[in-house]
Design goal:
heterodimer, A: alpha+beta, seven-stranded antiparallel beta sheet, four-stranded antiparallel beta sheet, B: alpha+beta, six-stranded mixed beta sheet
């Protein structure tokens, strides 16, 4: 684990290791100039999550998504190759695909009826004979592909600059924690049940913090724990908050801990009955055989909340949630959330997983709405920033053994944010 | 069959069903959640599929916003009455409009009905509008209706404008 060490470089983040103080200016949540810098220095220059391979499993499958302020098409060709294009016609710019998802052989811009195949090549248009060879040269009339597009274990990312580090290098220590999720499946993980598309009236960075904030769990989510206790057999005897925070490099961080809820991968609660326990025992035995006792126990029993800088959350908790989000303004955050599950999972376990997910997570859960409320209240509170101008992120600042309810993981995020935002000013 | 024909075959009139649905909305508008819960039969379910979901969406295979069995529904009501249900403390101001009530079919002991709704929610200087349709499975015992299942479809593309679903629709 890396120590708290880097010196801040912008005026927005103040770090004083000797005194154990870490503060972030509340201006970063409200000022349009900060958001403009984030767009240039962060969203234009980081690997951003687009989607999972299972969402476009069949040749001809496509989906459209807004990522980093762009409109993208994520598609699998007849050749099974996965590609990402900007959703804009080379002619006048209209979005060529207006559906959220589907399956087809081409994208046709309805404005002048230019049509593109799944490889992005122009294949048909009215009056094609009226264009010179020079006008078409170099693919000028084809869809523009994402400058960089790579995946790690089925998680596809785009990068809007051509010369950047590879995805694997960028992910750094996060790779180990992605593996801990992806290795749970024998036949691969898949996104199940669709996308939750909601929003929070708060700055996007507040959701980064919240997604792996081990300090807020008990106070904010008391009603969720009340609910677990109300339900016979929904708890296992594992206490919350015995665990650790890790700096994974490049602004990524994770907390790993035990918790009292059931985990569909391999921690049964009594309510799942003998059949549930048996099913989980089989999975656990397979994991032990494949990965050894120690790693299998970690995969089966431990929970992990990870933020991959800047805006991908991979939380392996009572279900696995994949969550990404983008600012629509300093005080508005658009959230997309999914759940991942092993393909081979039984229908019963799949149902338990989905219920586990929405008991806690999502816009109608027993917990997420309260997170949204907390973040919106923070945002409203920042209207006082001239008189009350700083957030405190000092908890556990000089601890040699950072716990999940310390704030090391947020400091990791903020140092990377600060470095990238300050680069432009320098 | 038209709604009137269904009504005749079920010995349920649309007027009495409308009275019931308006009374249900009034209980929710006034946050009388225990009385609202009493409209449900034991074992009843309350579901909110994802925005724009198909009519046959199934919570066993689709990620809903809410898929309450009876226990979870009771706990949802308990939760919403607590000051620690932060998203709804203090309670938001809400008003529900219910219309286009139709009886869909069924038997005397169990029938289904649908209504369109617009639910306004106001809190902290912002107003959200939820619109869609409810599908009820109900039973009439003596003079009383009991809800066996209520599914509240949000007929929007997504819930970006509404943020979240912290109220009962």
């Amino acid at each position: 684990m890396l120590a708290d060490r880097t010196q801040p470089r912008s005026a927005y983040v103040k770090e004083d290791p000797a005194r154990g103080i870490f503060r972030v200016s509340r201006r970063v949540f409200v000022e349009p100039e900060v958001l403009a810098r984030e767009r240039r220095q962060i969203f234009d220059r980081c690997w951003l999550y687009l989607g999972h391979e299972s969402e476009i499993a069949q040749p001809g499958d496509f989906l459209t998504r807004s990522v980093g302020g762009r409109e993208l098409i994520f598609t699998r060709g007849k050749d099974r190759v996965v590609r990402a294009f900007f959703n804009t016609c080379p002619h006048r710019g209209a979005m060529v695909c207006r559906e959220k998802q589907g399956n087809g052989a081409m994208f046709r811009c309805f404005y002048h009826s230019w049509a593109f195949n799944l490889e992005g090549k122009l294949v048909n248009r009215p009056g094609d004979e009226c264009y010179t060879a020079e006008a078409r040269v170099g693919g000028q009339h084809d869809l523009v592909a994402a400058p960089q597009f790579e995946h790690y274990r089925g998680l596809y990312f785009v990068h809007f600059q051509r010369s950047s580090e590879s995805l694997a290098t960028y992910l750094a220590g996060a790779v180990e924690f992605i593996d801990l999720v992806m290795d749970q499946a024998e036949t691969g993980m898949e996104i199940v049940g669709g996308t939750q598309e909601y929003s929070i009236d708060a700055n996007w960075k507040l959701l980064c913090e919240n997604s792996f904030d081990g300090y807020h769990g008990i106070p904010t989510h008391a009603t969720y724990f009340d609910y677990l206790q109300s339900r016979a057999g929904q708890l296992v005897s594992r206490s919350l908050s015995t665990g650790q925070a890790h700096d994974l490099g490049n602004g990524h961080a994770v907390v790993e801990y035990s918790a009292p809820w059931g985990r569909p991968i391999a921690l049964a609660v009594p309510a799942w009955g003998a059949a549930g326990e048996q099913e989980v025992a089989l999975v656990k035995a397979r994991l032990e055989e494949k990965f050894g006792l120690q790693r299998a126990a970690r995969m089966a029993l431990m929970n992990r909340n990870m933020v991959i800088f800047p805006n991908l959350v991979l939380n392996d908790i009572m279900a696995v949630t994949v969550r990404t989000f983008f600012p629509a303004g300093p005080a508005r955050n658009l959230v997309n959330a999914w759940t991942l599950a092993p393909r081979e999972e039984s229908a019963t376990m799949r149902e338990r997983r989905l219920l586990n997910f929405l008991e806690f997570l999502g816009p109608g859960g027993f917990a997420t709405p309260d997170d949204c409320e907390a973040l919106a209240l923070c945002q409203r509170g920042y209207s006082n920033l001239l008189e009350a101008g700083w957030n405190d992120i000092s908890k556990g600042m000089n601890s040699a053994d950072p716990k999940i309810d310390d704030e090391l993981q947020m400091r990791v995020f903020w140092r990377e944010w600060d470095r990238r935002v300050a680069e432009e000013a320098a | 069959m038209t709604s009137a024909e269904v009504a005749a075959s079920l010995k349920v009139t649309r007027t009495e069903l409308e009275d019931f649905l308006y009374a249900e909305a009034a209980l929710l508008d006034s946050w009388q959640l225990d009385q609202w819960l009493a409209l449900f039969a034991e074992g009843a379910r309350y579901l909110v599929p994802p925005a724009g979901a198909a009519e046959d969406a199934d919570p066993a295979t689709t990620l809903f916003y809410i898929a309450d069995d009876y226990h979870r529904l009771c706990e949802r009501v308990k939760r919403l009455k607590k000051p620690t249900a932060h998203a709804e403390f203090p309670h938001s101001k809400c008003r529900r409009l219910v219309s286009n009530v139709r009886l869909l079919g069924g038997t005397d002991s169990e029938f289904s009905a649908t209504s369109n709704y617009v639910t306004y929610r106001s809190k902290m200087g912002a107003t959200q509008v939820y619109f869609g349709h409810h599908v009820y499975v109900m039973r009439k015992v003596g003079g009383d209706f009991k809800i066996l299942k209520k599914t509240s479809f949000i007929d929007a593309d997504d819930i970006r404008d509404q943020n979240k679903v912290s109220i009962i629709l």
